[in-house]
Amino acid sequence: MMKRHLLFPDHPHILHGGDYNPDQWLDTPGIIDDDLRLMELSHCDVFSVGIFSWSQLEPEEGKFTFGWLDDILDRLNASDRKAFLATPSGARPPWMAKKYPECRRVIEDGRREEYRMRHNLCFSSELVREKTGIIDSKLAERYGKHPAVLGWHISNELSGECFCPLCLARFYRFLEEKYRTVGELNRRIWSGFWSHRFTAFDEIDPRDPALEAVRIDWKRFCTEQMRDFLSFEKGVIRKYSDQPVTTNMMGLYKEIDYFRLARECDFIADDCYPMWYVGEEKEVAARISMLHDLHYSMKQKPFVMMESAPGVPNFRPYAHLRRPGELQREMLLAVGHGADGTMYFQWRKGRGGFEKFHGAVVGHDNSENNLTFRQVADYGAHLRNLDRVVGTTRKIETALIWDWDNCWALEHGDYTHNFKDVHSVFLRHYRALWESNFPLGVVESCGNFSPYRVLVAPMLFMVKTGIREKLEAFVRSGGTLIVTHMFGYVNEDSLCYRPADLTPLTGVEVLDLDCMEPGRPQSVSINGSTVKVLEAAEVLRNHDAEILGTYQEDFYAGTPAVTRRRSGKGCVYYLGANFEDDFLRKFYFDILTEAGVAPMLAGLPDNVKCAVREGENERFVFLYNFSEQEEIISLPCPAYDLWNDRKISGSLTLAPRGSTVLVTP
Q1: Taking the model in full, what pTM does it have?
Q2: Residue 307 is among the residues annotated as catalytic for this protein
C-alpha cells in the first residue's frame, strides 16, 4: 500500500494559481474586485503574494503599511482562496540601498553595484539581516495564524555572488573551517602549481582561475551563503508560524547546489518555463520531465511547480502562442511526475516594468475572453477531478546521479568543450530511459540509493571520498550500476585519481581519452552491430570485466569500449564512449528488463509518453501526446478517464498535443 504525502492537509486539491502583485494596482479602482471575479472564473485558488513588495510594505525605514495586505488576505480567505505569503528579500527597497551602501553587492571587478534590478542583497551583511529580520518578523507575527496563509515563500529565486570585504572574510572562515590549516589547504588544492602556495587564508582570491579547487570551493561557499540566509529567514518565520516553508528553485541552474537548499525546505518548489517549438517537443518534454523527477526525488514526495508561463514568456527567442492542448499537457506533465501544484508567473500583466509583456493569466484587456485565460480556465475546471491524486507517490526503481560539485569541476577544469558538457550528456542518457517510459529519479552521489535497482552515472567526473565504496555496496547487494566515460577522474578537491583507483569498482582502467575530430571517426562493435561514437572515447585496459564491445577504428581498434563486471548479486556496466541515442535506448531497455524493471506502460506509440502515480488502491496513468497528430493507444484493460470523467475500454485517441489521466487498478 502506497503512503500518501499531503503537503497541505487543509487544502487537499492540486494547487492552481500564481504570483499575485496587488500592491502594483492599489491606485487603480476596481482592479482587486476584477481579480476576485476572474479568479473564480479561472478556478485559481492559491497565490504567491508579496514577493517584491518591500517598498510597499516599508516605504520608508521603520514606517510600515500593512493595510493593503490585510485587505488582500482577508478577501482571499473570504472567497475560499489561499496564499503563499512571501518574505520580500528578493529585492531591497531604494531607501536601503541609498542609506546603507554595504547592503549592495560588489561585483567581480571590485565595483559596488548601484541600485538596480533585483537579487541585490549581500548575504553577509549584518545590516541586511537586521532589516530582513524586522520585516519578516512583522509579517510572520501579523499573518502567521491568518487562515488564508497556506505556507511561506522565502525570498525569490535565490542567486548571485558578492565579493565585498564581508563576503571575502566569510569565505576565508569557510576555508578555515573546511581545511583547518593553510598547510592542509595547500596539500589538497595542489597549490604548488604556478607558485600558488599560500601562507594565510586571506591570500586566496576566489576569482583566480589557476586552481579550479578554489573556484569550486567558492561555488560551495555561495551555496552555503544562500542556504544560511534561507535558514535565517525560516528561523524568523518559525517564531510565529508553523506553516510549511519553501523557496523557488530554477531547475539545473548551475550556480547553486539545490540539494543543499532542499534541506531547509519543508517542500520543494520550482520554476519551469519550457517552449514547445515544433520538432523539439520530445526533447523539451524529456528535459522538463527530468527536472520534475529531480524535484520529486529531493524529498521523495510531491512538490509544487511554483512558476510556469500561462502565456508567452517574454525572454524566449520565439514567443509563439500556445497551441491547443499545450498548456494542459505541460501542467499534467508536472502533476504526473509528482507535482501537487501547478502555478503561474504571473496572475496579471503589469502595465509597466521589465515584465509587462510576460505571459499572464489576466492580460492587459482585463478580460476572460482572451486565449490564455480560456485555456487556464478550462484546465482549472478539470483539476478537482484529480483530488484523488493529491498526495499520491511514485514507484521509482531507476535513478540517475546528478551532482552540482561534479558540474563545477568540469566547468572550471582545463578541458575542451567535448569533455565538459555534462548537461547534454546527462540529458541524453535520461532521455534514452524516458523514451521507453521507465519511471526515473534524479539523486546526488551522496544521497540514498536504497530505493533503486538501477543507478546511472553519466559523466560522474568527480567521485567524492566514500562514494566508490557506497557504489560497490549497492552493486554487491544486487544493484545494477551504469557509469559512462569520464567517470571518477577527480576527488572532491579536484585532485586526479590515479588511473587504477576506480578499477576495484569497474574492472577497467582508463589509459587515455580521445576526442573525435572531424574526419577521424570511431565506432564500436557490440552484439554484432556497429555503433557510432560521438565526440569522446576512452582507451581502456581490462582487468577483470567482461568485454561486451570493442573499438573498430584507429590504433586502439580491438580494445574494450563497453564492459560488464559482476560483483556479489549485481553488476557494473562501463560505457567508455559517448554513444548515439538509438544505441543508448536499446542498451538501457535491455539492461532494465534484465534487472526486473518494467516500463510504466508498454506498447505506446513512439510519440506518446506516460507517467504514473500510485494511490492506496489505484494507479493513476498520465498520458501525453508530443506530436501534431492524433495518436491511438491500445489499452491492456478497461480504465476510467479521470480527467474527462468517462469509462474507456479497448483504445483511447489522444488529440494532437493531447493529454489525459486514467485510473487503473
Answers
A1: 0.96
A2: yes
